[in-house]
Amino acid sequence: MTQTMPAVTTFDDAKLARIAADFPILGRPTSRGKRLVYLDSAATSQKPRAVIQALVDYYEQYNANIHRGVYEIAERATAEFEAARVKLAHFINADVREIVWVRNATEAINLVAYSWGSTNIKAGDAILLTELEHHSDLIPWQLLAQRTGAELRFIPVDARGLLVLDDLDELLDGCKLVAIGHVSNTIGTIAPLDVVIPRAHAAGAVVLVDGAQGAPHLRVDVAALDADFYAFSGHKMLGPTGIGVLYGKRALLDSMPPFGSGGDMIHNVEYERATFAEPPWRFEAGTSNIADAIAFGVAVEYLEAVGMDWVREHERELTAYALERLGEFERRGMAIYGPRDPALISGVISFNFADIHAHDLASILDTEGVCIRAGHHCTMPLMEKMGWSSTARASFYLYNSHADIDALAAALTKAAQVFKV
Amino acid sequence: MDDFYRDYVLDHYRNPRNFGHLDRPDVQADDLNPLCGDTIHMELNVDGGGVVRDVRFSGKGCAISQASASMLTESIKGMTLEDVAKLSKDVVLENVGIGISPTRMKCAMLGLRVLKSAAIGELAGWPDEES
C-alpha cells in the first residue's frame, strides 16, 4: 500500500452496505438457507427498490398509453416516458433526440444493421468487428454481409485476451463500418475505443459500439468517445428487462429509414403511402415498454447518485481481490483467462477449475448460494479460438463485496472436495 | 444437486465406459446442447436380428452429460433397436438418481436423445448422416 493512493480507492464499507440494502433480492436467502451471492451481473443485474417501485407506481397510479391521450394520467405517462429519455441522454452525454428506445442492445444493433446497413453497405464493402464480440454484435453483421455481399473482418485478440491493433489501418482500408464491444462479456477486456474510433473515422468508417457491458460499469460520454452509435440494455444496469437504448448521432438517425413500422412512428398516413416521424420516434413503432423506460430512467439516476467513477473503482478493487483469491487455486488446477490486470478489465473473470466442467462447477457453487455463469457466454468463435470448450464466469457490480469473493472461494473449496481435485 | 456427484458418477466422468469409436459402425448419431455446447456422438453395431452388439460414444461436456452417456452404453448392449427407440427417461434417472434441476436435466438426457435418434433413424430406414 503506497502513501500516495488517492482516497477514492479506499474501500467504502458503509457506502457499500447502504447500496446492498437497496436491493431486496440480496436480503433473501436461497432455498437451502444460504446468503445469495450474486456474481452474474454480466448476464443481468439485480434491481434496487427504487426501480421496482417505479414499475409499480406506473401500473398503480398512471397506467395509460403515451403520445395520444389528453387526459391526466396519459399526460403524466407521456411526460414520465419522455423525462426518462432525457435522463438517459444526460447519462451518456447525448442530445435527447439521439436516444431511441429499443428492447435491448441486441435490438439496437439489429436496427442499425437493417436501417443504416441496408442503405449504406453494398457488395465489396468491409465491416470490421473484433474477435471478442458477443453473438449479438456478430450475427446481425453476418446476416447483413450475406444480404449485401459485404466482407467481414476481425480485429484479432491475443493469447492474453487483448485486442491487437498492429494491422488496424490495413483492416480499415475499404471499411464502411466498425462494430466493437466496449467491454468483453466473456473476459472483461476493455476495448481501446480512444484509439479505434479516431482511426476508423479517419478511414471514413462509421463506428457502432456495443455498450451492453460498457454502460453499466464505465462512465460513458458518447460525445467525447465520438461514437456514431452506442447500444446498451437496461437490465444489465439496474433497469428492467425489455428496455434498451440506441444512441445515434442526429445526422445519422435523420438519414435512416424506419426499422419497424406501424403506429406511433408516422407523420401522416394515407391508404397508399405514409411519411414518418422525426427520430427518435421514427424508430419506435408500436406502444413502447413505457413502464420499463420510466424505470430505466430511475436506474440511471441511481447509478449517477452512487457515481459511475465509484462504480468503476469499486469493481476494479473487487476484481483485483478476486484475481488474488482465485490465484490461490492455481496450484490445484485453476486456469484464469483473460488479462490479469484489473486496469484492463471490467468486473468479469472467466476461469476453469481442474477437470471440473464449468456447468458442474456452477451447479456445486449454486448449492452454496453462489450464482455464476457457465458455458460459452454467447461468444462461441472466441471460445473456439482460445481453445476453451466452456468457462465459468464470475462478474461483479456495485453491490458486490469482498465477502462475496470470499464466498466464491469457499464454494470453490467445496467443489474441489466434491470432485476430489 | 451436490448429492448427484457421487463417486460412481465421477468415475464414469473420468473413466467413461465404451468411449471411442467402432471400426465399422452400423448406426450412428450425434447431437449437442446448444445452451452449453455439450456434445455426444454414439456409434452402434447391430446384428441381423436388430440387436445391439457393441456401442461406443464420444463427446465432451459436463460430468452429468458424459457420465449419463457412459452409463447408458452399459445398459443397451443386447437390447433390440426397437427397445432402444422406446427407452424412457427413467433409465437415465435410475442411473444418475434424482434431484437434477430442469436445466441440468437437458445435460443428463443428451446421451439418451442421441441414442434414441440413432435407433429411430435406423428403424425408419433413414440414410446414415455421416456415410
Task: Give an account of the 3D structure.
- The complex is a heterodimer of chains A (421) and B (131).
- With 421 residues, chain A is an alpha/beta fold.
- In chain A, 39% of the residues lie in helices and 15% in strands.
- Chain A is built from 14 helices and 15 strands.
- Chain A has a 7-stranded mixed sheet, sandwiched between helices. In chain A, strands 11-12-15-14 form a 4-stranded antiparallel sheet, with helices on one face.
- In chain A, α3 packs across α10 and α4 runs parallel beside α5.
- The longest helix of chain A is centred in the first third of the chain and has 20 residues.
- The N terminus of chain A is likely disordered.
- Chain B is α+β, with helices and mostly antiparallel strands and 131 residues long.
- Chain B has a 3-stranded antiparallel sheet with strand order 1-2-3, covered by helices on one side.
- In chain B, β2 and β3 form a beta hairpin.
- The mean pLDDT of chain B is 88.
Q: Main beta sheet of chain A: strand number and arrangement?
A: 7 strands, mixed
Please give the share of residues in helix of chain B: 40-55%
Greatest contact pair? Answer: A-B, 21 and 18 residues
* Regions with little confidence, pLDDT below 50 for 5+ residues of chain A: 1-9
Strand content of chain A: 15-25%
Would you tell me the structural class of the helices and strands of chain B? alpha+beta
Radius of gyration of chain B (CA) equals 14 Å
Poorly predicted regions of chain B are none
Largest sheet of chain B: 3 strands, antiparallel
- The sequence of SSEs of chain A as H and E is HEHHEHEHEHEHEHEEHEEHHEEHEEHEH
Mean pLDDT of chain A: 95
Shape of chain B: globular
Number of DSSP helical runs of chain A: 14
**Quick one: how many beta strands of chain A?**
15
The oligomeric state is heterodimer
Strand order of the largest sheet of chain B: 1-2-3
**Overall pLDDT metric of chain B:** 88
* Element-level helix/strand string of chain B: HEEEHHHH
